[in-house]
Amino acid sequence: MFTGIIEKIGTVKKVTRLSKGAVLQIEADELLKGVKIGDSIAVNGVCLTVTGMSGGCFTADIMAETMRRSSLSDVTSGNRVNLERAMAADGRFGGHIVSGHIDGTGTVTELKREDNAVWVSIKADPSLLRLIVEKGSIAIDGISLTVAYVDDRCFKVSVIPHTGEETTLLSKKPGDSVNLENDIIGKYVEKLLGTDSRQQKNSDFSAMLSENGFI
After folding, report:
1. Which of 8, 55, 78, 201 has its CA 20 to 30 A from that of 131?
2. How many helices (H) does the chain have, and how many strands (E)?
3. The whole model's pTM is what?
4. How far apart are CA 48 and CA 144, in angstroms?
């Protein structure tokens, strides 16, 4: 489990491509203090297992499903990535509940400065947008952010200077892909109400309440 509060920006040192998956070697330096093989580290929001450590770097395997679901399929040597270790039980919960299980990717369409902040607009598939709510939480490349605007084509977040300096988000350009993880609470509510988009159901919440005597 993660919080979406990025601890460090790492650098991809090597990408070994497999037939469908890959192996990443990432420079993380002091972030690896106390980390052991088998621990989880979120890389651009994707929960990966540490399989080896050497010289301030760690390695992690990426399975084919992760390559299909996330922007890690586009990562190359020299890329900077957001890193967060799994949350310690005695740590502060500064962001929101982030599982590290990516729902899909979005595309950056615009970065626009407003005073001391930068508005970042991201286009996403309707299946992702339906679970994004204004003033709700979203993880973008592993960064816990508050949704400031959403419609049926895109959503926007406003990034303060500290977040811009401590993450890779403001280095993105229009057309770049980012990993998205919807708020897990919304996903569970959708599933329990029988409105999961994968099942193509369109249950009427009000009708359900009425049928069960709540209205």
Report:
1. 8
2. 5, 12
3. 0.85
4. 18
